[in-house]
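To: structure subgroup
Subject: Chain for Friday's discussion

All,

I'm putting the inputs and outputs inline so they're searchable in the archive.
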Amino acid sequence: MATVYDVARVSPLDSAAKLSGRLGNQIWLKREDAQPVHSFKLRGAYNRIAKLTPAQRAAGVVAASAGNHAQGVALAGQALDIRTTIVMPETTPSIKIDAVRAYGAEVVLVGDAYDDALAHANSLIAERGQSFIHPYDDLDVMAGQGTVAKEILDQHRDAIDTVYIPVGGGGLVAGMAAYIKRHRPGTEIVAVEPLDSACLHHALKADARVVLDQVGLFADGVAVRQIGAYPFAVARQCVDRTIQVSVDEICAAIRAVFEDTRSVPEPAGALALAGLERDVQARGLHGRTLVAVVSGANMNFDRLRYVSERTALGAHREALLAVTLPEVPGSFLQFCELLGRRAVTEFNYRYADAAKAHIFVGVAIRDGDRERDALCDEFRKAGYEISDLSENDVAKVHLRHLVGGRADALQDERLFRFEFPERPGALMRFLQQLGGRWNISLFHYRNHGAAFGRVLAGFQVPQGELQDFLDRLQRIGYRYWDESGNPAYRMFLR
């Protein structure tokens, strides 16, 4: 009889050395991103399709999916020489459509959402007599996904304290949990879900399957409104706990996987590790053997910038603060002196009030919430009015890109663009050598990990002092460009 290994490979169980050292536990990553379709989904799809009768094979199969399940079904159909139709929403990115077609599947684009695709798939089943391959609510699919667990236990013969498994519809967690609890009942199973898509958590709490009003789409691979019926029946018996994680924590986990493996998992692929990290920190775990399933790596490239922006906050390595300064020359420098050699990750300011200046600043931290709270206390003791915006979604998603605006009444403003060397003290040196002679009316900086920090700054420089100002910039030695005539500045900032 056919097995999943006709198409799947035994994925690595890699020791995560950096993670293990940082978290004080032995961390292992089950690398399902290493599968031919970069996801575990082909296991269940193949196991289901391989068990079709000759008549069912002749009729072909159909699936509704815009994600990894689509590629898994397409590859399985190609391997078994079965006609395969994948119904996808018209909004599906072309990279995913092309990937499915590359495996020889027929792609039908219908509607704007998964529900539209599913309805059309059902009509094809009625019209053609094809078999529907469900992404998770199917016993054969669950059994195929359970082979991930068998590999883990074969690869790690010693005791495993906890296995962390991502949850969407529940096929993976059910298949894995059933196998592990049968063969190693002492190993704890923790199901991990996004805070905004926790269908298993709410079902277990209600002791019945529930339908979520809506789900978050960042981790689209697990954006499921209702846990499957078969998976729920298994999970309520075999899953020990559930954990919910934030988008920021998922982003931090993506980075953590990259730092240990140099691969970039998709958000759902890093979900289990995000839960592991939260669990270690919340429960103070130490010296344990912990396994997280990296379930997939079909990352949309255009998400990488967003992930990078949110990573430091998710790992509690950055504090976002709103600080009020007196609007007088030298106050900016005084504030930076209080920061000392702490790395500034972001600085946004625009003149708005003659008495007070409101700045939006990001500061790199190492000791999480404790260091952030201590930093805020330090500023308050120095007399600054401060608000911690690190957990403020409006600030994280929007405000950091919107700080600024026009300052029509400002006199003698000149705009300059700089390249600062990306090292501690670069901003301090700039301000100290510039002195307090010219008022800073605009300042924008964001650390993007390059060798040079790109800074946009405005200064109030009367015409008679312009040459003195330019001479001072030359002595500082940072590359700069005068942007005072830039049309973007004239239209939106002046």
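Points worth raising on Friday:
The chain is about 40% helix and 20% strand.
Residues 1-311 form a domain with the Rossmann fold fold (CATH 3.40.50.1100).

D.
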